[in-house]
Design goal:
By secondary structure, the chain is mainly alpha-helical. The chain contains two helices and no strands.
């Protein structure tokens, strides 16, 4: 009988090895927290800009506070995961 890759007969998988997953959850949680801290720190200068824009527009610019954090988060993801310099 010929062994074919599509039948799964020649593929050996080591996904059941516990050592391959040792410490992965902790690293992923730490990376998640670090990403949130970076987004929070990047939000501060943009919030200052929106504040002064709100003063210039007599309060109309302050409506941008509602989309400030999602916009900064999307820009952060776009620059880190979506760029050619991704890990």
């Amino acid at each position: 009988m010929n062994a074919r890759v599509l039948d799964g007969e020649t593929i050996t998988s080591r996904l059941d090895d516990v050592r391959a997953y040792d410490g992965v959850r902790t690293k992923r949680i730490l990376a998640f927290v670090i990403d949130y801290v970076i987004v929070a720190l990047l939000t501060i200068p943009f919030a200052i800009l929106v504040f002064f824009l709100g003063l210039l527009t007599l309060g109309l610019g302050w409506m941008l506070f509602g989309v400030l954090v999602p916009t900064v988060a999307i820009l952060y993801i776009w620059n880190t995961l979506g760029s050619t310099d991704q890990a």
